[in-house]
Amino acid sequence: MDEIKQSSCGCMNNAKNERLSHHDDKTIKELTNRINRIEGQLRGIKGMIERHVYCDDILNQIASVNSALHGVAKLLLERHMKSCVKEQLQAGDEQVVDEVIKTIFRMMR
Question: Which CATH architecture has domain 24-108?
Fold first, then answer.
């Protein structure tokens, strides 16, 4: 298993020097539960397609999955801003602002 080191900003890096999040167990559980529900929704959509369910019903389920994914992204962005970004700014790393702006713009597409 990779060795994990904490950087000066509190964000963690593994032996390959990849940045890792440091969310608490509650956040990880909440995100995982949401993703598990979304996986179930996607399997349901696949089954609907295989059963030739009416297109409008499938499209409504797809909209529901998109909304659920958007909720996961908002939660993750909030936690990222309150932890990693905050800590990097406190450590003097202003470059993190550009990174977050790019990410938000990508999310808005």
Answer: Up-down Bundle (1.20)
